[in-house]
Amino acid sequence: MNVNDSQKFLDKVEGKNIDFLIGSGASSDYISTLSIGEKGNKHSIEDLLTAYNSQKMAQAFLKFLFFDSSVKNGLVSTIHIPEEAMDTLNSYKELIENMLTLSRHNGFERPKRTNIFTTNYDTFFEAAFDDISLEHPLAFFNDGSRGFFTREVSYENYYFNVTHSGSIDTFRREIPSINLYKLHGSLSWSKKVLKDDQTIITSSLKNELLTKIKEESDTILKMLNQGNRIEITDKNVIDQYLSNIERNEELKDKLGIFEKDYSKLLIVSPTKRKFQETVFQKQYYQLLREFENELQKDNTVLICFGFSFKDEHILDLLKRSISNPSLQIFIIPYSESDIEYINSVLKGYTDVTFLRSPDANEPGCFSVLNNFLEGVYDIENN
C-alpha cells in the first residue's frame, strides 16, 4: 500500500487494538540464526533439515548446530546477563516503554492493553519487563503464568483487565497492560507432573533440562571442533562434518543422546514434526487461536518486526485475516528482498504498509520501529 499524505504513523494506530508480531530478527544482534549462503539466497535451518530429511545423523547434527547457534544462550535475565546482550535488552526496554505510552493514550472506551505475539524462545521480553516494572508500578505485564513458587503457564491466564483503585477505593482506573504470547514456547518453560498425574507447564529461570543439554552440546563441540564455534558456509562443510561423524561411534552416540533430550524442550523445533509433548501441543494451538481471534477484532493494527513470514501456520492465519476489512498490517522489513518475498506470499490476500527509515540504506531494526512509535518518522517514508 502506498501512502501519499504526511499523516503521522501514530495517528494511524492510536486508539486501535494494537498487536505486535515479533520474530527472531529482534534478538539477532545477540542470538544468531543458523543459515548458510549468500545474502538474498540464504538457506535457513528449516531448509537444511528438509534437504537432509532422510538422513538420521544429519538431522541430529543440524539440530545440534541450531541449538549451539540460536538456542542455548537465550535464557537471559536482569540478574545474570552478559555484557554483549545489554544493547539488545535496552532495545527491548525502549520498545516496551513505547507500548506503554501508546496504551496510556487510548480513551476510556478501549482497553489499555497491548498484545505481543512472538516466535522467540529467548527471555528478553521477560527480562525487560522485570526492569521496567520497577520504574512503572502502574503497569501490568502478563506472560501467561500464575503462581508463586510454582508458576503455571496457561492460555487461560490472559483474560484480565487490571484497574487501580487507590488506597481507599475512591476511584478506579484501568492501567496499561501488556500480554506476552510465546507462540513457539520458551526456554523458561518446563513440564511438571503433579501428584494427581496431571501435567502442567511451569515457568522458571532455572531449567534443569536446558542445563543438561548445554553440557551435552559443549561436549559434542569439543569433539567436533576443539570447543570452537562451527562456521557453516555451504552444504559441503556439513557433508564433511557428517563424514567425520560417521567414523566416530562415540560421537554418534552423544549426538543421539543430545537429540533425544533436545526434543523434550518445550519449544517449537524448526522441523516438520514440531514437538512431541502433548501438553505443549495443546498450549501451542490455543495461543495460535488467540492470535487469530485478535486479528478478527474491529480496528486492529498488527505491527510486525523481525519476522520472516516463513512459518506456515502463522502465515495461514494472516492470509485468513483478509476477512477483517478494518485490519491494518505494518511491517518493518530488513531488506528489499524481504519486501519482495512478503509481497509475494501475501499477494491477493491483504495489503500491508512497509515502515522504513528516511535513509533508504538503513535496514529494518529496533531503532526504525521505535522511531515510528515515537512519532519521529512519518508514514509517508515507507
- Per CATH, the superfamily of the largest domain is TPP-binding domain
Q: Any idea what the CATH architecture of the largest domain is?
A: 3-Layer(aba) Sandwich
> What kind of oligomer do you see?
single chain
DSSP summary: helix tally: 12
CATH structural fold name of the largest domain = Rossmann fold
Helix and strand succession? HEEEHHHEHEEEEEEEEHHHHEHEHEH
Regions with little confidence, pLDDT below 50 for 5+ residues: 1-6
Strand line-up of the largest beta sheet: 5-10-4-1-13-14-15
Q: What number of domains? A: 2
Annotation, overall tally of beta strands: 15
Distance between the ends? 9 Å
Can you summarize the main beta sheet?
Answer: 7 strands, parallel
Q: Round the Cα radius of gyration to an integer and report it.
A: 22 Å
Mean pLDDT: 86
Q: What is the 3D form? A: globular
Give me the secondary-structure category.
alpha/beta
Helix content: 25-40%
Provide the β-strand percentage band.
5-15%
CATH class designation of the largest domain: Alpha Beta
Tell me about this structure.
With 382 residues, the chain is an alpha/beta fold. The chain has 2 domains: 9-29 and 84-194 and 277-381, TPP-binding domain (Rossmann fold); 35-76 and 206-262, no CATH class. Helices cover 39% and strands 15% of the residues. It has 12 helices and 15 strands. It has helices spanning 9-13, 45-51, 56-71, 86-104, 124-135, 208-225, 235-246, 249-262, 278-295, 312-320, 336-346, 366-373; strands at residues 17-22, 35-36, 43-44, 113-118, 140-142, 145-146, 152-153, 163-164, 173-174, 177-182, 189-193, 199-203, 300-305, 328-332, 352-354. Strands 5-10-4-1-13-14-15 form a 7-stranded parallel β-sheet, with helices on both faces. β11 and β12 (199-203) form a beta hairpin. α4 runs parallel beside α12. The protein is globular, with a radius of gyration of 22 Å. The termini are close together. Residues 1-6 have low confidence and may be disordered.
